[in-house]
Amino acid sequence: MSERIFSRNADYELDYVSEEELDRYLEEIVPGIGWVVVYFNSLEDHVSDFIREAILRDPFQDERLDVFLAEMMFAGKCRALIHLYGQMIEGKAVQFTHADLNALEAMLFECASRRNEYAHADWIGVRAEGYVRVKAQSKKTGVFHRYKKFDLARIKEDADYISTARFKLVEFNDTIHEQLWGRA
Fold it and tell me: Can you give the residue range of the structural domain that contains 128?
């Protein structure tokens, strides 16, 4: 079977695991899911910090900006940060290009996509072979369910991807600000 299933009948085609199998499965994977969440939350905090850094010159104003950041979802924060970086690229002599910025943006949104599968998954409804429903989508032709197969290796890969993205974002931010201020 593939690693992903997207079907109108997926709910009926996949067998549930027993309570004992569910308990064993969750005991095995929950720590990894926790790392996905921890790394993603840290990434989101970095995005907020870097928006503050790009907008404010007075660190005492951070709390005022937090009024807006607290109401923004991750996608909005990412778009705002990418747009701020884009203005820096356009307005200053920095060595980043819009292609670099597009790659950073794609990476951030891939992190969000991966995290959302964990946050919105039906972990109690695990099916045979480790399939978990990560999305239900209503269409004119019926309700479609998307299942994804999760195992420790996949979860570790997703946690590592998000952690690496956080380091790449920090590196990008540090470099662009060093270039802006003539320190690079």
Answer: 4-180
State the helix-helix crossing angle for 74-91 and 19-55, rounded to 10 degrees.
Answer: 30
As a whole number of angstroms, the distance between CA 165 and CA 159 comes to: 10
How far are the Cα atoms of 40, 47, 102, 112 from residue 74, in angstroms, in the given order? 10, 8, 17, 8
Q: Give the pair of three-digit tokens for residue 149.
A: 């197969």
DSSP 8-state class, residue 131: E
For residues 32 and 160, the answer to whether their CB atoms sit within 8 Å is no
Q: Where are the beta strands (DSSP E) in 25-162?
A: 131-139, 142-149
**What distance, in Å, lies between the first and last C-alpha atoms of the chain?**
51
Domains contained in the chain, number = 1
What's the pLDDT tens digit per position in 146-165? 999 999 999 999 999 999 99
- Tell me which residues of the chain have a pLDDT lower than 70: 1, 57, 59, 184
